Amino acid sequence: EASSTFAKHASRGRRWLRASECTAFVSPRARQRKSKTDLDEYGSAECGAVVRGGAPFLLRDSEELIETVLRRLGYLEEEGDSDVGEAIDVFAAMELNRAMLAALGFLGGAG
Fold first, then answer.
1. Span 56-75, mean pLDDT?
2. Among residues 95, 73, 98, 99, which one has the least CA distance to residue 84?
């Protein structure tokens, strides 16, 4: 409901443009910390996780999309031979990532 309210207000007098290419939107998040400092600074643990996670980014679909995302998120080395399969396993083993992957249907109910 909030997203449709946002869309109504954001699109007043404007037309939304469709992406001409397939893209991936990545919104990194850090672990939520319920410390007084975080609550004072960010207002909530969730907002703190979003801010500490870094800026969201868009990437064009490509053969290297998965490797690029894993590299940008720090799961793969910048240079050299990296084990992409191992990086995927580590990424998917993280609690928040596992929950998101399951919600999107990527874990086939195994999450």
1. 93
2. 73
